[in-house]
Write a structure and sequence with these properties.
Structural class: alpha/beta
Largest sheet: 5 strands, mixed
Radius of gyration: 23 Å
Number of helices: 13
Helix content: 40-55%
Strand order of the largest sheet: 1-2-3-4-7
Number of domains: 2
Number of strands: 7
Protein name: Transposase (putative) YhgA-like domain-containing protein
């Protein structure tokens, strides 16, 4: 079963094919800006009962170099069988479409990225015959975008930066910059970014930060994450009783209010502080923290008097 991060790492290029030309500079190559791009069928199955399916397949049109194909593969870990599959994809596509074909592998950790970018030959050392050299996008070469203005300039690239750095310490700053930048984006643009970013976080701790940022900074969007949070609240209310559900709702809203005040004042909210606030279930304590959040000079100070 494919995971949400796997889907986010390649589907983002389907949503915005031109993203590849903007990413190419970070990969050490110069790809002309496309004048047209088309998503092609991803099924590479032959007449024989062997199914082979590339994650995303795009056809680009350029003025300088004409048309070429780009196969995008999302890779979550080392897989010794993958290079042979990738070589098959590239060879088959080259044969089928008679167009130059490139391969981009998107990863979320340094070890997988280092492994994926190694050149692999189909023949013995003295007869390489067919050599595969994938382009690899991952935390080692994708930009770290923590400035909201930089994120606003290319929201899709900022989302890819978040997805490829999902397991890195810098992810909190990237997500905060992206959520701030999305406040000015049209709803139809923001909803896609929210989805790709949420999928890319998978089950990592950053998933909870992104949910909170969406709930606070982007609450006016009817994204599926916001609906998911509301559904969870309604389900909890049915299971634990109407009154308890209302109290939990007040606590959740109180926690979001405290975080919103701290962040809008420009204070640095650490993961420990965020966790303590979001896990507090006492509305009275949260109201006290909210009052202190208005005047404290550091986020940790909201807890100083207990």
């Amino acid at each position: 079963m494919v995971s949400p991060p796997h889907e986010a790492m390649h589907r983002i290029f389907q949503h915005d094919p031109g993203l590849f030309s903007r990413v190419s500079c970070f990969l050490g190559i110069d790809i002309p800006k496309p004048i047209g791009a088309t998503a092609l069928p991803t099924d590479l199955t032959e007449a024989s009962p062997v199914e082979r399916r590339v994650d995303t397949l795009l056809r680009f049109e350029t003025e300088e170099q004409g048309a070429f194909l780009l196969a995008v593969e999302a890779q979550g870990k080392k897989d010794p069988d993958k290079p042979a599959s990738w070589a098959y994809y590239v060879s088959y596509l080259w044969t089928k479409y008679r167009l130059p074909t490139a391969l981009l592998v998107v990863c979320q950790d340094h070890r997988t990225a280092k492994w994926a970018q190694q050149a692999v030959s189909s023949g013995p050392p003295q007869l390489p015959t067919l050599t595969l050299r994938p382009l690899v996008a991952g935390p080692h070469n994708m930009p770290v975008i923590t400035d909201p203005d930089e994120a606003r300039a290319d929201l899709m690239l900022a989302s890819l930066a978040a997805v490829t750095h999902a397991a890195e310490p810098v992810i909190n700053g990237i997500l905060k910059a992206l959520s701030t930048a999305l406040q000015d984006a049209p709803e139809d643009v923001a909803s896609a970014i929210i989805e790709f970013t949420a999928q890319g976080m998978g089950n990592r701790p950053a998933k909870h930060l992104w949910r909170n940022l969406v709930a606070v900074d982007l609450s006016f969007y009817k994204s599926y994450i916001s609906e998911e949070i509301r559904d969870e609240g309604r389900e909890q209310g049915r299971e634990q009783g109407r009154e308890q559900g209302r109290e939990q709702g007040r606590a959740q809203q109180g926690a979001l209010d405290v975080l919103l005040v701290l962040e809008q004042r420009g204070l640095d909210v650490s993961d420990d502080v965020r966790t303590r606030i979001t896990e507090c279930g006492d509305p009275e304590v949260l109201r006290h923290w909210l009052a202190r959040a208005v005047t404290v000079s550091a986020a940790e100070a909201v807890f100083q008097d207990g």
